[in-house]
Amino acid sequence: MTEAKPKRLIVVATNNRHKLQEMQSILGSAWLVQGAGDVASGLTWEETGSTFRDNARIKINALKPYVKGCILADDSGLCVDALHGAPGVNSSSYGGIEGDHGRNVQRLLAHMRDVPDHERGAHFYCLILFLNERGEEEMFEGRCFGRISRQPSGQGGFGYDPVFIPDGYNLTMAEMSERDKNAISHRGRALTEFMKDRS
Ligand code: IMP
Question: Is it true that the peptide bond before 87 is cis, omega within 30 degrees of 0?
Fold first, then answer.
């Protein structure tokens, strides 16, 4: 009988339960994913960076004092062609209140009201910084291209999922199964790159 391999612990610099669950499901059973709240209760940080990379580093640095092993920080957002890449790094506060996904979506749709169908292109972007066992930083990226719909649809996912239709689909990301979203999402792709380096 072969012994089961011990799980590899990874602390992810987020307090977003939905994201943690997504990451656990993408990384699979070889990894034990913990969130910031599991190692430092109540820990928060200000995402004041002007790039995705700056923000990922802010998250890594916030967790460093509390973690001996590996830390993974991702920063992601929606980049809309017709808005010159906005909301981008400001995706989570675009509607005026940090983390209010409903307001963010409403503001986006308002700004896109007069944008014709063929100019509604957008992509989700995800940057991952990984602080490995040797204390070295590694970087991974993932993108998911698609377009912005005219109204929200679907109950799954989070954030801008109800108004994002990935290329090759006639569904919003919020209408896809978790498994299908993870297979094509920006975070899924960045994490796949991350796992390639570790197998
Ligand atoms: P974070 O940096 O990964 O926390 O993401 C910042 C913001 O980008 C989130 O609050 C969402 O508005 C948006 N976002 C990131 N990933 C996704 C996704 O998978 N679906 C929808 N929105 C997302």
Answer: yes
Measured from the Cα of 157, ligand 1's closest atom is 20
Report the amino acid identity of residue 63.
L
Q: What's the CA gap between 124 and 133, in Å, rounded?
A: 29
Residue with tokens 């669950």: 21
CA 91–ligand 1 middle distance (angstroms): 7
**Burial of 28 by CB count in 10 Å (0-12 exposed, 13-18 middle, 19+ buried)?**
exposed
The residues assigned a catalytic role are 75
Which structure tokens are listed for 5? 């391999």
The per-residue pLDDT for range 95-125, each reduced to its tens digit, is 999 989 999 999 999 999 999 999 999 999 9
The one-letter amino acid at 152 = P
Q: What are the residue boundaries of the structural domains of the chain, listed by start?
A: 8-195
Assessment of whether the complete model's pTM goes beyond 0.90 = yes
> Using CA positions, which residue lies closest to atom 5 of ligand 1?
76
76 close to 125: Cβ distance less than 8 angstroms: yes
Q: What are 114's two structure tokens?
A: 């007069």
Collapsing DSSP states into helix, strand and coil, what is residue 44? coil
Residue of 108, 144, 160, 187 best suited for mutating to test ligand 1, as the one with most atoms within 8 Å of CB: 160
In CATH terms, the fold of domain 8-195 is: Maf protein (3.90.950)
